[in-house]
Amino acid sequence: MSREHYLPRGMMLAPTGKVYGVRSEPIPVTIDSAVVKALCKHHNETLSPLDEAATDVMNALRAYVHIHTRRERLRRRRWGWKSFTLDGRRFERCLLKCAANASYVLSAEMAHWRPPPALVEMIFGERAIPAGAGFAAVKEPGDKLLNENFRVNLMSDAPGEPPFAVMLDAVDGFRFVCTWERPVVDIGTYENFRGQEVLPHFGGIRNLKTNIQVKFDWSGRWKERENRSVVDLRNRFPRPRRK
Fold this sequence. Notes:
- By secondary structure, this protein is α+β, with helices and mostly antiparallel strands.
- Helix content is 25%, strand content 28%.
- The strands form 3 sheets. The chain has a 7-stranded mixed sheet.
- Strand 2 (16-20) and strand 3 form a beta hairpin.
- The longest helix is centred in the N-terminal third of the chain and has 26 residues, at 48-73.
């Protein structure tokens, strides 16, 4: 078995993060300790494109903040459009992978729940995610975009119950949520999300003042060669190191 990052290394904006369950105290992790031995080397490498897609999402958000902030400080002009298009389908599957891997960390709290075969098949792209389930962004009040206090949270109806969704809280103003059975819009009835807007297969964000946008491609046909602006960011933002 190989060491698998249950929080994709490139997604973490700081050297530390936290894993949350339903009732447990948060489990602090460092960027190099957030690993489990859940996959063999071959299957770990098979899922590497999912981690790359998740890293691309965070890099694009970093770039969005950087460019937006820089342009706002300069004298207003007609800026050229800067656009980043992201692989939504692989990012969606990566969030499901986070749920599966985090279950090993929160095993006792989740009554030793393990990902069912159907979820594993969705992660590997061998089974379609049910209609209505999958990825959504939840809009919440907030001014800043990036939040260095990276958190991943498995959500269940009650302590000891199996999880039904994973939530990524790395972005102020939005939370990323993914389900694998239930309709993702039902998240809006969950206590922590009441009154907040749930946006299934989120299209992205744009700012018409500074002419910058981040878009999600849900076609399943995203190609690196057609999205060089995203690929180039992989060398621009260094990965955080362990403190």
